[in-house]
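Justification of resources, computational component.

The compute hours requested in this renewal are based largely on the per-chain cost of generating structure records like the one below. Each record pairs the submitted sequence with a full structure-token output. That output is archived, and it is also reused by downstream analysis tasks.
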Amino acid sequence: MVFGGETAESYYDEGLTASMQGNLPRAVEYFQQAVKLNPNYIAAWHQLGKCYLRLGDAQTATRVLLHVIQAKPNQPAAYLDLGYAYLQLGKIVEARQQFKTAEALRAGDPKALLGLAQCAFAEGQWQESLLAAQALANTQRDNFAVHFLIGRAAWILGQTQVAMEALQRAEKLLKQSLETNPEQPEPYFLQGDIYHLTGNVREALRSYETALRYATKNRGYSYYGVHFSYADILGKCGVCCQKLGLHQDAQRYGRSLLELDPNSKLGQALIQKTPPEK
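The structure output for this chain reads:
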């Protein structure tokens, strides 16, 4: 029994607490119990969908969020979350439509505009994505996702100075997140991506290995619109080891990848000492 008794509201409150603490599997259990006790508790359904999204289960998140939107079609937040679920599934057209709907319901919503910029990035429209993110940066100066998107798009476009400035801001914000969530893998993984992108492979490996220490097998993660799994972390560690000439470590990560997925091309490349493409 949860504190406050066997009520949907009590389970909802416990779910919110577990979610804020990063214990998403437990949060799912609480929200599931809340909607079991009260099937019309739309706020609990919404939080359940958000948890599934953060766990990397975009298929389930999509089903839950569609239920939320059907029940309450005028809530921009549900469309935003559904947009990111579709992005996670690679359904860019559907994702863009959700972000447009959210922006129509709440004109100028920065989260909706960011979602549209991320859709452009996912489609390889680097310049469009960069310009949209830079426009947002003028009003969202301390937004990690905005600076991270600017950094990645600018790097691809060869605008190194712009990329480095944005990624440095993003890293600073990540460090603040790490102070409050020191045992969650997500910020370490993104920190690794920043180091890896800018060529600091040794620091990238250190960040990825820290993420691996806190990650759980057989589950996904979603953080600031970036989706990854335990296997992805293994792969990143292996690639960094390969680049650093640590071939035995790279092979070890390759074997771990193959244990999870015997058909992993990256795992095969790592154990064969073949420079991976990733």
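The beta strands are 220-223, 226-229. The chain is about 75% helix and 5% strand.
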